[in-house]
Specification:
By secondary structure, the protein is α+β, with helices and mostly antiparallel strands. It contains 8 helices and 24 strands.
Protein backbone atom coordinates (compact mmCIF):
# COMPACT_ATOMS: atom_id res chain seq x y z
CA UNK A 1 0.00 0.00 0.00
CA UNK A 2 1.40 3.41 -0.99
CA UNK A 3 2.07 5.78 1.93
CA UNK A 4 -0.50 8.52 2.45
CA UNK A 5 0.60 11.86 0.99
CA UNK A 6 1.08 14.68 3.49
CA UNK A 7 0.36 18.24 2.31
CA UNK A 8 1.36 21.58 3.80
CA UNK A 9 -2.33 22.55 3.81
CA UNK A 10 -5.12 20.39 5.20
CA UNK A 11 -8.85 20.96 4.53
CA UNK A 12 -10.35 19.80 7.81
CA UNK A 13 -14.08 20.43 7.26
CA UNK A 14 -16.70 22.00 5.00
CA UNK A 15 -19.88 23.95 5.69
CA UNK A 16 -22.62 23.03 4.98
CA UNK A 17 -21.99 19.32 5.36
CA UNK A 18 -24.32 16.61 3.99
CA UNK A 19 -27.23 16.14 3.99
CA UNK A 20 -27.59 19.93 3.74
CA UNK A 21 -26.94 21.40 0.28
CA UNK A 22 -25.35 24.44 -1.33
CA UNK A 23 -28.15 25.80 -3.53
CA UNK A 24 -27.92 27.54 -6.88
CA UNK A 25 -31.21 29.36 -6.24
CA UNK A 26 -32.01 30.72 -2.77
CA UNK A 27 -33.03 34.01 -1.15
CA UNK A 28 -30.43 33.75 1.61
CA UNK A 29 -26.76 34.01 0.61
CA UNK A 30 -25.97 31.54 3.41
CA UNK A 31 -27.74 28.84 1.37
CA UNK A 32 -25.60 29.45 -1.73
CA UNK A 33 -22.20 29.54 0.01
CA UNK A 34 -19.50 26.95 0.61
CA UNK A 35 -16.98 27.40 3.41
CA UNK A 36 -13.70 25.52 3.77
CA UNK A 37 -11.68 25.30 6.97
CA UNK A 38 -7.98 24.94 6.07
CA UNK A 39 -5.00 24.26 8.33
CA UNK A 40 -1.69 25.78 7.20
CA UNK A 41 -3.15 28.34 4.77
CA UNK A 42 -0.48 31.03 4.18
CA UNK A 43 -1.72 34.61 4.36
CA UNK A 44 -0.14 35.60 1.04
CA UNK A 45 -1.06 32.50 -0.96
CA UNK A 46 -3.07 32.86 -4.19
CA UNK A 47 -5.91 30.34 -3.99
CA UNK A 48 -6.75 28.15 -6.99
CA UNK A 49 -9.38 25.47 -6.49
CA UNK A 50 -9.95 22.14 -8.21
CA UNK A 51 -13.47 20.72 -7.93
CA UNK A 52 -14.49 17.20 -8.84
CA UNK A 53 -17.65 15.16 -8.89
CA UNK A 54 -17.21 12.35 -6.36
CA UNK A 55 -16.82 9.06 -8.24
CA UNK A 56 -15.75 10.78 -11.47
CA UNK A 57 -12.45 11.90 -13.00
CA UNK A 58 -13.99 15.06 -14.50
CA UNK A 59 -12.69 18.17 -12.78
CA UNK A 60 -13.08 21.96 -12.88
CA UNK A 61 -10.46 24.58 -11.97
CA UNK A 62 -11.47 28.04 -10.75
CA UNK A 63 -9.82 30.87 -8.83
CA UNK A 64 -11.23 31.98 -5.50
CA UNK A 65 -12.07 35.34 -7.09
CA UNK A 66 -14.06 33.47 -9.73
CA UNK A 67 -16.46 32.27 -7.02
CA UNK A 68 -16.76 35.75 -5.52
CA UNK A 69 -14.85 34.28 -2.60
CA UNK A 70 -12.68 35.66 0.18
CA UNK A 71 -10.45 34.50 3.02
CA UNK A 72 -10.40 35.10 6.77
CA UNK A 73 -7.39 33.45 8.40
CA UNK A 74 -8.03 29.67 8.00
CA UNK A 75 -11.54 30.13 6.56
CA UNK A 76 -12.25 30.27 2.80
CA UNK A 77 -15.77 31.40 1.85
CA UNK A 78 -17.21 30.99 -1.67
CA UNK A 79 -20.63 32.64 -2.09
CA UNK A 80 -21.19 31.48 -5.69
CA UNK A 81 -20.66 27.97 -7.09
CA UNK A 82 -22.82 28.42 -10.20
CA UNK A 83 -20.00 27.11 -12.42
CA UNK A 84 -20.95 23.52 -11.60
CA UNK A 85 -24.07 23.77 -13.79
CA UNK A 86 -21.88 24.56 -16.81
CA UNK A 87 -19.47 21.72 -16.13
CA UNK A 88 -22.12 19.13 -15.21
CA UNK A 89 -25.30 20.47 -16.94
CA UNK A 90 -27.21 17.17 -16.80
CA UNK A 91 -27.39 17.02 -12.99
CA UNK A 92 -29.82 18.65 -10.56
CA UNK A 93 -27.74 17.59 -7.55
CA UNK A 94 -24.11 16.50 -7.19
CA UNK A 95 -21.83 15.25 -4.45
CA UNK A 96 -18.50 17.05 -4.86
CA UNK A 97 -15.07 17.57 -3.31
CA UNK A 98 -12.44 20.29 -3.68
CA UNK A 99 -8.72 20.79 -3.08
CA UNK A 100 -6.19 23.61 -3.38
CA UNK A 101 -3.73 23.48 -6.29
CA UNK A 102 -0.90 25.45 -7.89
CA UNK A 103 -1.37 27.18 -11.29
CA UNK A 104 0.32 24.11 -12.80
CA UNK A 105 -2.25 21.80 -11.21
CA UNK A 106 -0.01 20.34 -8.51
CA UNK A 107 -2.00 19.59 -5.32
CA UNK A 108 -1.35 21.77 -2.28
CA UNK A 109 -3.91 20.12 0.00
CA UNK A 110 -5.93 16.98 0.54
CA UNK A 111 -9.34 16.55 -1.08
CA UNK A 112 -12.01 18.06 1.17
CA UNK A 113 -14.79 16.09 2.82
CA UNK A 114 -17.71 15.66 0.44
CA UNK A 115 -20.41 18.32 0.08
CA UNK A 116 -23.65 18.48 -1.92
CA UNK A 117 -24.65 21.11 -4.51
CA UNK A 118 -28.22 21.31 -5.83
CA UNK A 119 -30.38 23.46 -8.09
CA UNK A 120 -32.85 24.38 -5.34
CA UNK A 121 -34.58 23.11 -2.20
CA UNK A 122 -36.63 20.60 -4.19
CA UNK A 123 -33.53 19.07 -5.80
CA UNK A 124 -31.81 18.95 -2.43
CA UNK A 125 -34.79 17.20 -0.85
CA UNK A 126 -33.60 13.68 -1.60
CA UNK A 127 -30.38 14.34 0.28
CA UNK A 128 -32.23 15.79 3.26
CA UNK A 129 -34.70 12.92 3.40
CA UNK A 130 -31.87 10.41 3.17
CA UNK A 131 -30.58 11.66 6.51
CA UNK A 132 -33.43 9.98 8.39
CA UNK A 133 -31.90 6.61 7.62
CA UNK A 134 -28.24 7.57 7.74
CA UNK A 135 -27.89 9.12 11.18
CA UNK A 136 -26.64 12.38 9.64
CA UNK A 137 -27.85 15.77 10.87
CA UNK A 138 -31.56 16.50 10.53
CA UNK A 139 -33.08 19.80 9.44
CA UNK A 140 -33.41 22.29 12.32
CA UNK A 141 -35.72 21.19 15.13
CA UNK A 142 -38.01 23.34 17.23
CA UNK A 143 -36.13 25.48 19.74
CA UNK A 144 -36.53 24.34 23.35
CA UNK A 145 -36.20 27.19 25.84
CA UNK A 146 -34.25 26.72 29.06
CA UNK A 147 -36.42 26.05 32.11
CA UNK A 148 -33.56 27.05 34.45
CA UNK A 149 -32.58 30.51 33.23
CA UNK A 150 -34.16 33.73 32.11
CA UNK A 151 -31.87 36.60 31.20
CA UNK A 152 -31.81 40.23 30.13
CA UNK A 153 -29.21 41.74 27.82
CA UNK A 154 -27.10 44.37 29.57
CA UNK A 155 -24.68 44.91 26.68
CA UNK A 156 -24.08 43.16 23.39
CA UNK A 157 -21.84 42.96 20.35
CA UNK A 158 -23.17 41.38 17.18
CA UNK A 159 -20.68 40.03 14.62
CA UNK A 160 -21.17 38.81 11.04
CA UNK A 161 -17.63 37.90 9.86
CA UNK A 162 -19.02 35.19 7.55
CA UNK A 163 -22.50 34.12 6.56
CA UNK A 164 -22.71 31.26 9.05
CA UNK A 165 -21.09 33.18 11.92
CA UNK A 166 -23.80 35.76 12.64
CA UNK A 167 -23.78 35.62 16.44
CA UNK A 168 -24.21 37.73 19.56
CA UNK A 169 -21.69 37.95 22.38
CA UNK A 170 -23.68 39.48 25.26
CA UNK A 171 -23.32 40.49 28.87
CA UNK A 172 -26.35 38.98 30.61
CA UNK A 173 -28.20 39.60 33.86
CA UNK A 174 -29.42 36.14 34.76
CA UNK A 175 -32.33 35.07 36.94
CA UNK A 176 -32.94 31.59 38.30
CA UNK A 177 -35.54 30.34 40.76
CA UNK A 178 -33.61 31.69 43.74
CA UNK A 179 -30.71 33.83 42.46
CA UNK A 180 -29.81 36.80 40.28
CA UNK A 181 -26.29 37.23 38.93
CA UNK A 182 -24.22 38.35 35.92
CA UNK A 183 -22.84 36.17 33.12
CA UNK A 184 -20.73 38.69 31.23
CA UNK A 185 -19.57 36.80 28.14
CA UNK A 186 -18.71 40.00 26.25
CA UNK A 187 -16.62 41.46 29.09
CA UNK A 188 -14.70 38.18 29.36
CA UNK A 189 -14.21 38.02 25.57
CA UNK A 190 -12.87 41.57 25.43
CA UNK A 191 -10.62 41.28 28.49
CA UNK A 192 -8.97 38.01 27.38
CA UNK A 193 -7.87 38.84 23.86
CA UNK A 194 -11.10 39.12 21.85
CA UNK A 195 -11.07 37.75 18.33
CA UNK A 196 -7.31 37.12 18.38
CA UNK A 197 -7.64 34.73 21.31
CA UNK A 198 -11.10 33.24 20.76
CA UNK A 199 -11.88 33.74 17.07
CA UNK A 200 -15.52 34.41 16.26
CA UNK A 201 -18.50 33.05 18.14
CA UNK A 202 -19.94 29.89 16.59
CA UNK A 203 -23.00 29.67 18.85
CA UNK A 204 -25.31 31.79 20.91
CA UNK A 205 -25.22 31.58 24.71
CA UNK A 206 -27.14 28.39 25.48
CA UNK A 207 -27.76 25.84 28.22
CA UNK A 208 -25.71 22.87 27.06
CA UNK A 209 -25.59 21.23 30.48
CA UNK A 210 -28.21 21.71 33.21
CA UNK A 211 -27.43 24.80 35.23
CA UNK A 212 -24.53 25.99 33.01
CA UNK A 213 -24.57 28.68 30.31
CA UNK A 214 -22.13 28.10 27.44
CA UNK A 215 -20.88 29.85 24.32
CA UNK A 216 -18.70 28.26 21.62
CA UNK A 217 -16.02 30.15 19.69
CA UNK A 218 -13.72 29.02 16.90
CA UNK A 219 -10.76 28.73 19.28
CA UNK A 220 -12.38 27.80 22.56
CA UNK A 221 -15.46 27.37 24.73
CA UNK A 222 -16.57 29.54 27.67
CA UNK A 223 -18.92 28.50 30.48
CA UNK A 224 -20.79 30.54 33.10
CA UNK A 225 -21.30 28.26 36.07
CA UNK A 226 -21.50 28.15 39.84
CA UNK A 227 -18.42 27.08 41.77
CA UNK A 228 -18.26 27.26 45.58
CA UNK A 229 -21.53 29.24 45.60
CA UNK A 230 -20.11 31.89 43.22
CA UNK A 231 -21.17 32.30 39.58
CA UNK A 232 -18.20 32.90 37.31
CA UNK A 233 -17.14 32.94 33.66
CA UNK A 234 -14.47 30.33 32.90
CA UNK A 235 -12.65 29.04 29.83
CA UNK A 236 -13.32 25.36 29.31
CA UNK A 237 -10.23 23.14 29.29
CA UNK A 238 -10.84 22.13 25.69
CA UNK A 239 -7.54 20.32 25.14
CA UNK A 240 -8.69 17.69 27.65
CA UNK A 241 -11.49 16.77 25.21
CA UNK A 242 -8.86 16.13 22.50
CA UNK A 243 -5.78 14.81 24.29
CA UNK A 244 -6.57 14.91 28.01
CA UNK A 245 -8.81 11.91 28.55
CA UNK A 246 -12.28 13.52 28.70
CA UNK A 247 -15.25 12.09 26.81
CA UNK A 248 -13.23 9.17 25.45
CA UNK A 249 -10.27 11.23 24.21
CA UNK A 250 -6.81 9.69 24.65
CA UNK A 251 -4.92 10.97 27.69
CA UNK A 252 -1.56 12.10 26.31
CA UNK A 253 -0.51 13.58 29.64
CA UNK A 254 2.34 16.11 29.74
CA UNK A 255 6.03 16.06 28.73
CA UNK A 256 8.20 15.95 31.87
CA UNK A 257 11.25 14.84 29.87
CA UNK A 258 11.10 17.72 27.36
CA UNK A 259 11.77 20.92 29.28
CA UNK A 260 13.25 24.16 27.98
CA UNK A 261 16.27 25.93 29.44
CA UNK A 262 15.23 29.21 27.81
CA UNK A 263 14.16 32.21 29.94
CA UNK A 264 10.43 32.39 30.66
CA UNK A 265 7.74 31.74 33.25
CA UNK A 266 7.15 28.27 34.74
CA UNK A 267 3.41 28.14 35.40
CA UNK A 268 1.07 25.65 36.99
CA UNK A 269 1.39 22.13 38.30
CA UNK A 270 2.98 20.46 35.26
CA UNK A 271 6.41 22.11 35.41
CA UNK A 272 6.25 23.63 31.91
CA UNK A 273 7.45 27.06 30.85
CA UNK A 274 5.97 29.78 28.65
CA UNK A 275 8.80 31.54 26.82
CA UNK A 276 9.50 33.77 23.85
CA UNK A 277 12.08 31.19 22.73
CA UNK A 278 11.40 27.57 21.74
CA UNK A 279 13.31 24.59 23.06
CA UNK A 280 15.58 24.69 19.98
CA UNK A 281 16.37 28.41 20.36
CA UNK A 282 13.90 29.78 17.77
CA UNK A 283 12.45 33.20 18.66
CA UNK A 284 8.66 32.64 18.73
CA UNK A 285 7.08 35.32 20.95
CA UNK A 286 4.73 32.93 22.78
CA UNK A 287 5.17 34.53 26.22
CA UNK A 288 4.36 38.03 24.90
CA UNK A 289 1.29 36.67 23.11
CA UNK A 290 0.20 34.69 26.18
CA UNK A 291 0.44 37.68 28.50
CA UNK A 292 -1.22 40.08 26.04
CA UNK A 293 -4.26 37.84 25.52
CA UNK A 294 -5.42 36.83 28.96
CA UNK A 295 -2.67 34.61 30.35
CA UNK A 296 -3.74 31.69 32.52
CA UNK A 297 -7.35 32.95 32.62
CA UNK A 298 -7.59 32.48 28.84
CA UNK A 299 -5.18 29.62 28.10
CA UNK A 300 -4.92 27.59 31.29
CA UNK A 301 -1.57 26.11 32.30
CA UNK A 302 1.00 24.81 29.79
CA UNK A 303 1.14 21.02 29.34
CA UNK A 304 4.27 21.18 27.14
CA UNK A 305 7.07 23.59 26.37
CA UNK A 306 7.27 25.12 22.87
CA UNK A 307 8.72 22.51 20.49
CA UNK A 308 8.11 20.71 17.21
CA UNK A 309 5.63 17.83 17.37
CA UNK A 310 8.24 15.63 15.67
CA UNK A 311 10.78 16.20 18.47
CA UNK A 312 11.84 12.70 19.57
CA UNK A 313 10.67 13.36 23.15
CA UNK A 314 7.37 15.03 22.20
CA UNK A 315 4.24 13.15 23.27
CA UNK A 316 1.33 15.53 22.61
CA UNK A 317 0.15 15.98 19.03
CA UNK A 318 -2.92 16.75 16.93
CA UNK A 319 -3.85 13.94 14.52
CA UNK A 320 -3.93 15.20 10.93
CA UNK A 321 -2.39 18.59 11.72
CA UNK A 322 0.15 19.92 9.22
CA UNK A 323 3.69 19.12 10.28
CA UNK A 324 6.59 21.54 10.52
CA UNK A 325 5.24 24.02 13.09
CA UNK A 326 6.48 24.77 16.59
CA UNK A 327 3.55 24.16 18.94
CA UNK A 328 2.85 24.60 22.64
CA UNK A 329 -0.07 22.84 24.28
CA UNK A 330 -2.09 24.42 27.08
CA UNK A 331 -5.13 23.16 28.98
CA UNK A 332 -7.39 25.41 26.91
CA UNK A 333 -5.42 26.22 23.74
CA UNK A 334 -2.63 25.25 21.35
CA UNK A 335 -0.22 27.92 20.09
CA UNK A 336 1.55 27.59 16.73
CA UNK A 337 4.45 29.54 15.28
CA UNK A 338 4.14 30.48 11.57
CA UNK A 339 7.42 32.11 10.50
CA UNK A 340 7.10 34.78 7.83
CA UNK A 341 3.45 35.54 8.62
CA UNK A 342 2.37 39.05 9.63
CA UNK A 343 0.95 37.46 12.79
CA UNK A 344 3.32 34.54 13.36
CA UNK A 345 1.67 33.34 16.59
CA UNK A 346 -1.60 31.59 15.84
CA UNK A 347 -4.10 29.46 17.73
CA UNK A 348 -5.61 26.15 16.68
CA UNK A 349 -9.40 26.06 16.20
CA UNK A 350 -9.95 23.96 19.31
CA UNK A 351 -13.46 25.29 19.85
CA UNK A 352 -14.52 23.91 16.48
CA UNK A 353 -12.64 20.67 17.15
CA UNK A 354 -14.36 20.12 20.51
CA UNK A 355 -17.78 20.98 19.05
CA UNK A 356 -17.26 18.40 16.31
CA UNK A 357 -16.11 15.83 18.85
CA UNK A 358 -19.02 16.40 21.24
CA UNK A 359 -21.55 16.56 18.38
CA UNK A 360 -20.27 13.92 15.93
CA UNK A 361 -21.46 13.85 12.31
CA UNK A 362 -22.81 17.41 12.61
CA UNK A 363 -25.25 16.62 15.43
CA UNK A 364 -25.15 20.31 16.46
CA UNK A 365 -26.83 21.40 13.20
CA UNK A 366 -30.48 21.02 14.35
CA UNK A 367 -30.00 23.47 17.23
CA UNK A 368 -30.80 27.07 16.43
CA UNK A 369 -28.06 28.33 18.78
CA UNK A 370 -25.42 27.07 16.33
CA UNK A 371 -27.05 28.69 13.30
CA UNK A 372 -26.90 32.33 12.16
CA UNK A 373 -28.92 34.56 14.49
CA UNK A 374 -30.37 38.10 14.46
CA UNK A 375 -28.91 40.74 16.80
CA UNK A 376 -30.02 41.15 20.41
CA UNK A 377 -30.91 44.60 21.72
CA UNK A 378 -29.78 46.06 25.03
CA UNK A 379 -32.53 45.54 27.60
CA UNK A 380 -34.10 42.68 25.64
CA UNK A 381 -35.27 39.57 27.47
CA UNK A 382 -33.37 36.51 26.25
CA UNK A 383 -34.16 32.90 27.12
CA UNK A 384 -31.24 30.59 26.25
CA UNK A 385 -31.90 27.48 24.21
CA UNK A 386 -31.70 24.23 26.16
CA UNK A 387 -30.01 21.52 24.12
CA UNK A 388 -29.27 17.85 24.65
CA UNK A 389 -25.68 16.95 23.91
CA UNK A 390 -25.13 13.44 22.50
Amino acid sequence: MAPETTYAMNITSVNPSPPNCILSVARDRFDTSLELFVDGLPEDHDVLLEFRKVGSMKQHWISLAGTGGYRNESLITMPNLHFWKHTWPDYERLTMSVRLITPDGDPLSNWSPAFVVADDVTSCGAAILASSASGLPRPPAARMASANFSTRVKRNSFFVPAVHLAHNIPDLQVTTADQEFACDFLAHYQSTGGVTRWGHATSEVMEERPGVLTQYYQRGVVDCQQRHDVWRIERRLVWDYIGGGLRGAPDLGVEPDLLSEQPGAVLGPFGHRVSNVAVDGTDIGFLDFFEAHGGVAAFGYPKTDARYDHHPQAVLNIPGAASGFIRQYFQAAVLEYHPGSQQPVKLRLLGDAVRDRLYPAGAYVPYSSFGPTPPLDTGEAYVPESITRP
